[in-house]
């Protein structure tokens, strides 16, 4: 690459323009491809056409997104001997690889090994980097740069001003990537290998969600062929959250990652009912897996009659004791109920073939298959090992007290059994008012009958709110793959919230997973996180409080009000600032606030709807605030947030979540007294 000229900013702008032109040329090259002569049939043509469409989308140039955000000047060419006089190289680091007409790189993908020092190099360990340059942008225009001479002992280490500005940049629209601001401890997690499962404990604003998404992008870069076969999945707590994060991976050029909620994964039945907290906790307990296993295998009946197979003029008799030996052997094997049921007729047929061979016949595989399909064999299999419908099985467990008692004996006590039994048993699967927890039980039963297909990698966000049975449902989707688990024990707001990450990993089937903790806060201002951390001793006394690295303490105020109109006025006040505004309130308070905003003529959005320059205010029920972020937050009536939950600890955790959604400022309004835990 060429040597910088005397006007660095002009040179960098020129390189940006050239890189954008090169990216357009790369896209045009793909668009002009003619596949008519290289596809043998319409199936190949369809597959190749889809691949080309995805490639074209991945090469999109987002006008307001910097094509590169940094530059590395190496002392020596990477991989070359560090001999005296060896010439160094410089590389521009960006969201995707861009090359010129000759194939020479103009922008290096942030995930490439040569880009790693941009995130990890320091004055203590320069990693052979002479200069690290960060770029500042206004929209898509390059407007500033900042240099660190990492190998110069005369230059002192300092905090990057542009890095701080990028972290604090106002948020309008969906969540954006953090590719320009990844910190060393985050980069270690992002670049950890595909084979291992990583669990990230991170307080508010530590970037755990972004780290998880960037890890997916990195793994797709490093193991593209393998993950193209096995698939990747991001699991979020609700649709609003998924809508909020859905643009991060496409912005990094990754378009093939599926997104879902846990409810989506287990949608075997229509969920129309709800459980009380006591029933939901028991249904979500891992002990239910054993109850279900017993219930499924209770359908197996030991044979008492022989099987007689008639072929032509010959009769072949398999005695009951021999059939029982086969059934017991299948029961001891670690295979699914359905797989064992499919194996049983072949085992019986094999026993018949052994008798045929002893009598001097020479049967082949076709004869064995024919015997396996014999009506007598089919009848025996149906009697011994009947098919099981998972939904009907769970229906019977929840509706039939005797059936539940038989299979829950020694696992659930009588009170626990009563708690999960339906007061009004449903007559059929379709008429039942299934709850979300019931759907998870059906998914477990389904897996006992037939193995759930595994993906290559699963990211599970806001994991602290999952029940043990939900963890098992997620774990089934990555039995032969790996996972990234993201969460914060202090933000657990369900009655069954996770108590420890070791326990969660065990339920996932990933006990070997590594637990990492992020404690540096990038999103929440110092004054705001300090105020919210007053709740930690009451909700998660063992956790390390988040320490904000923001130089700007942020705007913070606690304001007593007497009328709802004053809450609306607080929103109008914050709307004078740049960026997004979130009005967070207890769910029960949302209708009144909605009416007050409407009366004031103040337009607002629902969670998950994308903010625009014209509409920057979102009215957020506290139950949906988790994972979202806004430049400024008005938090209405903290005590009402606590009172809206079934118990004080859960209420305090919900309040902790609500208090930590702000990026630039927080205004707490209250007519009632403040919770004593906030001092």
Automatic annotation (TrEMBL):
A single Gene Ontology CC term: cytosol
Entry-linked InterPro entries: DNA_helicase_UvrD/REP, P-loop_NTPase, UvrD-like_ATP-bd
Residues annotated as domain UvrD-like helicase ATP-binding: 181-534
Gene3D superfamilies: P-loop containing nucleotide triphosphate hydrolases
Source organism, top-level taxon: Bacteria
Binding of ATP, residues: 202-209
Keyword ATP-binding applies: yes
Record carries keyword Nucleus: no
GO MF, any single term: DNA binding
Keywords for the protein's UniProt record, in alphabetical order: ATP-binding, Helicase, Hydrolase, Nucleotide-binding
UniProt record, GO biological process: recombinational repair
Protein's name according to its UniProt entry: AAA family ATPase
